[in-house]
Amino acid sequence: MSAPKIKSPFAMFEWMMAFRYLRSRRRDAFVSVISWLSFFGIMLGVATLIIVMAVMNGFRSELLDKILGINGHLVIQPMDTELTDYNDIVKRIDGVDGVSFAVPFVEGQILASASGGSAGALVRGMNKDSIDKLQLVSKNVLQGSFDDFDSSDGVALGSRLARSLGVIAGDRVTLISPKGAVTPMGVAPRIKSYPVKAIFEIGMSEYDSTFIFMPLEAAQAYFNQDGKVSAIEVYLDDPDRVGELRPAVEDAVNRQIFMTDWRYRNVTFFSALEVERNLMFIILTLIILVAALNIISGLIMLVKDKGSDIAILRTMGATRSSIMRIFMITGAAIGVVGTFAGFILGLIVCLNIESIRQFVSWVTRTELFSPELYFLSKLPADMNPSETISVLLIALVLSFLATLYPAWRAARLDPVEALRYE
């Protein structure tokens, strides 16, 4: 006995009629225009939502990588006594499971001056071994090098700071600190000239225009911090485990300290990004909703225009459910094709976002993504698979729901009334 044949929920003639209604004819031109507008509306809505969310994700990811690439996930500062035993503390912290490395440093604000001008800067004194671990710095050297950095008595400048001062590797830069030697006349500013050992570019304008790295011992001498450091930065294997690893790090330090982590230091900034991201998602989803409403209006007009055709199909034996499925297929086809066309368009734009930005900037002769304003040197885009799937599902569901009412009206059409005046 042969297995029973599974009947498809949509008959072949229903598909045939649906696609016939989608094809444009001269007397259906207006209905066809609305269908095309619905298609382009959904396509552009899906593409826009994918592009904007990818840029927002890329922006957050890039900023997080840059911020956490040069700033520790945990920062340990002294409370009762100065950090003079920092080497022992670092060794104990390095032994904690989940900790990548710990870095002691001396930090202070100064005025940097050279022949090209002057600018405020932040000096961070670190050993060469510590700088080598900060690959965001050590792997992005534009000029010079960090070879023999500890014994060179030189400094490393961010690229934007070097340009503003008009210096290159090998030149000298003068650092002026307000916290200098104490004299009978008061505190005299400390002024000292250093050779520029290296110029690096992190890719975040705020850091490239601010940071100066100096050998740890030289920084201790310059800031009158002999034998001690300002703080210790702890870098974790997984930044998201910072809350879980805090107690273990505190136990390893084994003294009174003040500890902060990256979440609290940047909570306002990343919370603002998250709120903006969620609002953009809601606002741009309305574009898809408007396009879905166009599908409703287009199908209602199509049902009104095809009243006699529907009546003839009913008299030939087509059931109400068949009529309903025909118009559901007609509207859903617009939504499905528009959704996947929008996905392809969004994917192409996201893969070429920086080239498109440069082209538009060149055509309009404007700076669309100023590094000074947005902190990053290029426009990032990071498509999240689950988020993209959510966008596609929202578009498909809205497109399907938009077909229900017009299809129901078509199914409820009375053949007698439709043919009375034909």
From TrEMBL:
Protein name (database record): Lipoprotein-releasing system permease protein
Keywords for this protein: Cell membrane, Lipoprotein, Membrane, Transmembrane, Transmembrane helix, Transport
TM helices/strands, residue ranges: 29-56, 279-303, 323-349, 389-408
Annotated organism of origin: Cohaesibacter marisflavi
Compartments where found: Cell membrane
Signal peptide (residue range): none
GO biological process, one term: lipoprotein localization to outer membrane
Domain ABC3 transporter permease C-terminal residues, every copy: 281-415
Membrane topology: Multi-pass membrane protein
Family classification: Belongs to the ABC-4 integral membrane protein family. LolC/E subfamily.
Pfam families on file: FtsX, MacB_PCD
Ranges of residues in domain MacB-like periplasmic core: 35-251
PANTHER family the record matches: LIPOPROTEIN-RELEASING SYSTEM TRANSMEMBRANE PROTEIN LOLE
GO cellular component term of the entry, any: plasma membrane protein complex
Coiled coil: none
